[in-house]
Write a structure and sequence with these properties.
- The protein is an alpha/beta fold.
- It has one domain: Vaccinia Virus protein VP39 (Rossmann fold, 3-Layer(aba) Sandwich), CATH 3.40.50.150.
- It has helices spanning 48-54, 77-86, 99-109, 149-160, 173-176, 182-193, and strands at residues 2-5, 8-11, 14-18, 31-34, 37-41, 67-71, 91-96, 115-119, 139-142, 166-172, 197-204, 212-219.
- Helix 4 (149-160) runs parallel beside helix 6.
- The termini are far apart.
Length: 220
């Protein structure tokens, strides 16, 4: 076993994270006992962040104690692994507009007190700003399937990120446009992101996710 990024390890070619809730699974993932400690296998077919890491993302700006704002948290698959990484001293604020998916996320929160669910529209950061008062966000992470993905990301960056902090967005090309060439779609979205971020890395997610681009940037 070797460390690929902080608290993200490789065991027999699989990504694993230390299980913050020993004995508990989130989405049917494998639990592994390695050198007396329990780890969870991180499936890149179920998580765009894991897919990006498998495809060569060089920098994953996550560490124990970090505070993360997650837009489009859904049922918490990726958020649970971020929860493992930031640990008990960190926190993941998970925003999603769907009350149905939030009900499933709440079940995870019973075992993971470092995930804070927020039912809200990610495109209206002013609606949940009160939850983040006096919180310094280390990483803004977004996975939403809407046309204005980059605009939503930038709004939240303006509201919650200080200069030098990081953002990761999973761009879903066909949610943005069904008609335009995919390369042009991504180029337009990246140009929009550059209004708020210096882009550090761009990673395609095939074969794990089709027509997706993971973008890492640092706030200007």
């Amino acid at each position: 076993m070797k460390e690929k990024h902080t608290r993200i390890l490789i065991h027999n070619s699989a990504l694993v994270t230390p299980n913050l809730a020993p004995g508990k699974r989130v989405y049917g993932e494998k639990l592994l006992n390695i050198q007396g400690k329990e780890f969870r296998e991180w499936n890149p077919f179920r998580s765009k962040l894991a897919a990006g890491i498998k495809n060569g993302l060089k920098q994953v700006p996550l560490a124990e104690g970090n505070k993360v704002l997650y837009l489009g948290v859904a049922e918490g698959t990726t958020a649970s692994h971020i929860s493992d990484i930031v640990g008990e001293k960190g926190v993941v604020f998970g925003v999603d507009i769907s009350e149905r998916t939030m009900r499933k996320l709440l079940q995870i929160c019973d075992d993971r007190e470092n995930i804070v669910p927020v039912v809200a529209d990610a495109g209206k950061p002013e609606e949940y700003a009160e939850y983040l008062e006096e919180q310094e966000i280390d990483l803004l992470y977004q996975d939403v399937s809407q046309r204005d993905q980059a605009s939503i990301f930038n709004k939240n960056a303006k509201q919650f990120l200080k200069k030098g902090k990081f953002g990761i967005i999973a761009l879903k090309g066909r949610s943005i446009s069904q008609k335009k060439n995919l390369g042009r779609v991504f180029a337009t979205e990246v140009k929009e992101l550059e209004k708020e971020f210096t882009i550090l890395e761009k990673i395609k997610l095939e074969p794990f996710e089709k027509e997706h681009l993971l973008v890492l940037g640092v706030k200007k």
